[in-house]
Amino acid sequence: MSDTAGRKLFQHSGTALIFRGALALLLAFLVASLPVATVFALVYVFGVFAMTDGLTNMAHYFYDPARHSRWSLIGGFISVATGIVAVSWPGITAAALGVLIGAWALVLGISQIILAMDTRTTVRAWWIWMLTALVTTLFGLFVLVNPGAGFLSVVALLATYAAVSGVLLIASGIKLRRRASSSVMLAH
């Protein structure tokens, strides 16, 4: 891979992570600001978030065929499929919503753990991706173990998870963009 291609990869990868992080923070804000919203509204908010996050992940996979990971693509498909199920099934109950969100986070977290392990030799900040993956996996396990913990608990957990995940994704994106920028400075 040429130096120019490497700089572009990290710059665009960083932008994708920052975008995903901003989406997660937007989800956190929406969920936290509407704590008494119905499960029906939360299903749509979550469904749109999951589909957008998944499509962004899949677009990144196809955008850079020289440096893609099938785990990135798998994570994208998991998110899109979960979002479609959520939006297609709006009459879902609070407990079923907890199971759906928990299963999504668990499977997505496991795919992100594998992706972080794959990138640890090429990306210095791989541990931030691993931390994001672990937070996602633990969130999924907690919600799966307690799916009927109550609607407001699910709302608080989802808002907290989205905020933490969003901050970690933005931090990863900034680190990648800085790496691309420092490569440009070193090349000149």
Automatic annotation (TrEMBL):
<keyword id="KW-1133">Transmembrane helix</keyword>
<keyword id="KW-0812">Transmembrane</keyword>
<protein>
    <submittedName>
        <fullName>HdeD family acid-resistance protein</fullName>
    </submittedName>
</protein>
<feature type="transmembrane region" description="Helical">
    <location>
        <begin position="95"/>
        <end position="115"/>
    </location>
</feature>
<feature type="transmembrane region" description="Helical">
    <location>
        <begin position="127"/>
        <end position="145"/>
    </location>
</feature>
<feature type="transmembrane region" description="Helical">
    <location>
        <begin position="151"/>
        <end position="171"/>
    </location>
</feature>
<feature type="transmembrane region" description="Helical">
    <location>
        <begin position="17"/>
        <end position="50"/>
    </location>
</feature>
<dbReference type="Pfam" id="PF03729">
    <property type="entry name" value="DUF308"/>
</dbReference>
<keyword id="KW-0472">Membrane</keyword>
<dbReference type="InterPro" id="IPR005325">
    <property type="entry name" value="DUF308_memb"/>
</dbReference>
<dbReference type="InterPro" id="IPR052712">
    <property type="entry name" value="Acid_resist_chaperone_HdeD"/>
</dbReference>
<feature type="transmembrane region" description="Helical">
    <location>
        <begin position="71"/>
        <end position="89"/>
    </location>
</feature>
